[in-house]
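Dear colleague,

As promised, here are the two records you asked about, laid out in our usual form so they can be pasted straight into your sheet.

NAME FIELD: protein one
SEQUENCE, THEN STRUCTURE:
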Amino acid sequence: MKVISVNIGETKTMKWRGKPVKTGIYKYPVGHSIYLGKEDVQNDHVLDRRFHGGLDKACYAYSLDHFDYWKNLYPELEFHNGIFGENLTIAGLDEANVSIGNIYTIGEAEVQVTQPRQPCFKLGLRFGTQKMIRQFIDSGFPGVYFRILQPGEVKKGDEFIPVEKKNSLSIQKVFELLYTNEFQQEEVKKAVNDPFIAESCRKDLLKRWGDYL
């Protein structure tokens, strides 16, 4: 996996159900390195820390490999790195081969995989339609949130260097468990008992499947 671009967002005010809402999802590539801090990316704008930022979701990455899929669905949209609100646009990122708890070094930083992205209405605002939320879920391409174990600078061209691979569920499987109608008992148990999964993701899995466990 390789960093194709590093992206930073500015605060933008949009209308949602007739009311103004602020968002930092409008991210664009920058020509310098970015600093991955413990709770967010320095100089980025994280406005709703219930869902973004914090120790478990300090940095979000999305795969450039998936862009063609979305260009087919939205041919009229001008695509650029950062359009999904990602801080890191990555080549070679396959959610089926990235597991919860995996550790990598990127540039000066060391990061750990914590959960898939769960889409909200702001992604729909970014794409101009709330149909995007269901399409994002159905795609199986959620991208990856990282916990920052060692803060540091990351820049375009940096490679992901594996440090430790866990015997855990893939990001793609956890994403499936969050939205499927099929209860997969062993997989759900493994996910909610994983010490490295983001706490908010664990809570959402328990909310979805706790009565069946």
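NAME FIELD: protein two
SEQUENCE, THEN STRUCTURE:
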Amino acid sequence: AQQLMSGVSTYTLLSIPCFILAGDLMFTGGLSRKLVNIAMVLLGRRPGGAAIVAVASATAFGAITGSANATTAAIGKATIPEMVRRGYSREFSAALAATYGPIGILIPPSIPIIIWGVVANESITQLFIAGIVPGLLIAAGLMIMSYVHAKRHKIPVDEGRFSFAALGHALKDGFFALMAPVLILGGIYGGVFTPTEAGAVGVLYGMLVGVCSREIKVGELPAIILRSMKTSAMILFIVGMSSAFSWIMGFNQLPDRLGEMLLSVSDDPIVILLLINVLLLVVGSFMDELAAMIILSSFLIHVGATIGLDPIHLGIIIVTNLAVGLTHPPLGYTLFTASAISGVPVDRIIRPLIPLVLSELAVLALVTYFPSLSLFLLEVF
């Protein structure tokens, strides 16, 4: 019981309910729809345009919420009907929503990255920076697959001409949506406020924009706050219980024993990293990503230190693995969210999902074996 309470009694964890509430306010305030409108004007008139717009919008919205499910739900609701209208199958549209949602937990501010920073006692700001390129690589891979899909299935291209007037109108309407990630991430990287304080800034910004634009009525705020409280309570309960279980594992020296078992297979870092990825992909298929991260943290930190793995790089490998785990059965949260908002049964989403997941696995391999992809921005900032 003491470990459960101490596991959630960390100042940094205050950012989790703040970012959840900020994302909920911005979704209800129509910011996701405005981001989609801007992306549609810029990218909608090319092969695969509507699908590319969906991925670009998810990337931008992920930089506001830090949540995979919120990104899938918010952007999926706005883009799946438009993709179907433009000739994409509802199955592919749902599969794409399931795979672009996890970009939200790599592009900062990311809730799993915050939790890993707390568990591993690493700089959350540095972890945020390290997650940018992997998140963008996943987005790029999904865009390429969307382009290939559109060409292969001869999806018609919008023949309308680009209009600066339309772009200007979309930018004007979506100005505050674009400023949200600039404010939050710029404040963190500029040293104006900490990641925890950034969550509170996001809440204030989302509330002011939503109320002042009349997208949110003051009377709706209690229901939005209550909904975010429920989500936060579920996440923090998982964190607390997982912290207690992790302590039990440490007390019984299980991380050391598991580490010795893994290292007995091979002492080659390439093989060890492959085994870690396989383990995380399997565990991520059956366990909540936050619980898996915390329960396995002491074991993974021990193995990472043994083979000389940079702890920031290790954190990004773990989050990328768990992001992929969100997209496929049997526990894939974003897969079931995409099924719910599209009305397509899960079994019909699987076939178009396969090439999209393979593109994410390719990015995972690059992130794992080329540490500079994650770490080079740390030298810049």
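A couple of things worth noting about protein two: The chain has a mean pLDDT of 83. The two ends are 40 Å apart (CA to CA).

Best,
R.
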